[in-house]
Write a structure and sequence with these properties.
The structure is a single chain. Helices cover 42% and strands 19% of the residues. By secondary structure, it is an alpha+beta fold. The strands form two sheets. Strands 1-4-5-9-8-7-6 form a seven-stranded mixed beta sheet, with helices on both faces. It has a two-stranded antiparallel sheet with strand order 2-3. Helix 1 packs parallel to helix 4, helix 2 packs antiparallel against helix 4 and helix 5 packs across helix 10.
C-alpha cells in the first residue's frame, strides 16, 4: 500500500472520530447544521481530503473511495440521529408548555346574568309565541295620530295633558304606550293577526317607589273573525298561569280605555292580596275602522301590562327604582 493511501485513510479515520465527538457535544439544531456543512458540505473537510485522490494510482482509488463512503455514511447517520433527538425534545417541550394543569385553581370570570326586567319580557314573549303570536316593534318617538287619534283618544282626553305626555318641539311625542304598535301593524298586515309588542314607554310621572318616567310595556293584540271576550279571558288566564307558575284566582273588573270596549282590569290573588296586573278589552270598532278593517267582519282583543309591575310582584321587589340603579348587590340576586 502506498504512503499517500495510508495517509488519506488515517485522515479519514481522524475526521470521522472528530466529527462524531463534535456531533455528540452539539446542543441545538443550528449548531448541528453548521457541523454538517463543516464536515460534509461542498467546501467541508471530507471533500478537501478526497481531493488527494487524484494523486493515487488507479488501483488505490477504489480502496480510498470505499473508506470515504463509509466515513460519510457514519457521519451522516450520526447527524440524523442527533437531529431526531433535538426534534423529539422540541416536541416534548412544546407539549409540556401547552399542557393544561387541571390541578391548578381556575381563574374567576364573573358570568353575566339576565336583568330581571329582561327576564320578564323574555318570559312573556316565550309564552305568547308559544300561543301563536308574533313579536312586533315600533318607534319610540310617535306622532299624535298613532299615539292618540288612531287609538280613539279624543282631543280633550286627559292622556293628552302635558303632565302625562312628553311632547317634542316638532309636535311629535314620546310614546306613552306600545298600543301605537297596533296601528302600524294593522296598516301593513291583513287579519287574522296575533302580535305581542314589548317596548319602552314614557310618561311625565313623578318618580317614586312605584312610578317611573320611563317604563316597559308589553301589549298583545289579536284580530280575527268572531273573536269574543271569552277568547280574551282564556288567553289571559293561560298567560298568567304560565307566568306565575300556578293556577291563581283571577278577577276581571270593568274599566275604561278609549281604544277598547268593553274594557276591564285584571287582578290576581297573590300571597293573600288582590294585585292588578294588566288592562284589557275588546278592540273598539272605531280603531278597526281607522286602519281599514271592517268591524262588521272582524273583531279583536288587546291587553297590556307593565314589565316592571310583574317583576316587582314575582321577585318581591319593594321599589321600582332598584330596577334601574345597576346596583350589583341587588342584581346578584337574579
Amino acid at each position: 500500500m502506498g504512503i499517500l493511501l495510508g495517509e488519506l485513510q488515517t485522515q479519514l479515520q481522524e475526521l470521522q472520530a472528530a466529527a462524531i465527538q463534535a456531533i455528540d457535544g452539539c446542543n441545538n439544531l443550528e449548531d448541528l447544521e453548521k457541523l454538517r456543512v463543516e464536515y460534509l458540505g461542498k467546501k467541508g473537510q471530507l471533500p478537501q481530503i478526497l481531493r488527494g485522490m487524484g494523486q493515487l494510482s488507479a488501483e488505490e482509488r477504489p480502496a480510498i473511495g470505499l473508506v470515504s463512503n463509509q466515513v460519510k455514511d457514519i457521519i451522516q447517520n450520526s447527524l440524523d440521529q442527533q437531529k431526531e433527538t433535538f426534534l423529539a425534545a422540541q416536541i416534548q417541550a412544546q407539549l409540556a408548555a401547552e399542557t393544561i394543569d387541571v390541578t391548578m385553581p381556575g381563574v374567576y370570570v364573573p358570568l353575566g346574568r339576565v336583568h330581571p326586567l329582561n327576564g320578564i319580557i323574555d318570559r312573556a314573549i316565550d309564552i305568547f309565541v308559544g300561543l301563536g303570536y308574533t313579536v312586533a316593534t315600533g318607534p319610540e318617538m310617535e306622532t299624535d295620530y298613532y299615539n292618540f287619534e288612531a287609538l280613539n283618544t279624543p282631543a280633550d282626553h286627559p292622556a293628552r295633558d302635558m303632565q302625562d305626555t312628553f311632547y317634542l318641539p316638532d309636535g311629535n311625542l314620546l310614546r306613552t304606550h306600545t298600543s301605537a304598535v297596533q296601528i302600524h301593524y294593522l296598516e301593513e298586515n291583513e287579519p287574522p293577526i296575533r302580535i305581542i309588542a314589548p317596548g319602552r314607554c314614557y310618561r311625565r310621572d313623578t318618580v317614586d317607589a312605584t312610578h317611573s318616567a320611563v317604563f316597559h310595556q308589553i301589549e298583545i293584540l289579536a284580530v280575527d273573525q268572531a273573536l269574543t271576550f271569552t277568547d280574551l279571558k282564556g288567553t289571559i288566564k293561560e298567560f298568567l298561569l304560565q307566568m306565575f307558575g300556578m293556577d291563581l284566582p283571577i278577577r276581571f273588573r270593568a274599566s275604561y280605555f278609549p281604544f277598547t270596549e268593553p274594557s276591564a282590569e285584571v287582578d290576581v290573588q297573590w300571597q293573600g292580596k288582590w294585585l292588578e296586573v294588566m288592562g284589557c278589552g275588546m278592540v273598539d270598532p272605531n280603531v278597526l275602522t281607522k286602519v281599514g278593517c271592517d268591524p262588521e267582519i272582524y273583531s279583536g282583543f288587546a291587553a297590556g301590562f307593565g314589565a316592571e309591575r310583574l317583576a316587582m310582584v314575582l321577585h318581591e321587589i319593594d321599589d321600582i327604582r332598584r330596577l334601574y340603579t345597576s346596583d350589583l348587590r341587588f342584581l346578584h340576586q337574579f
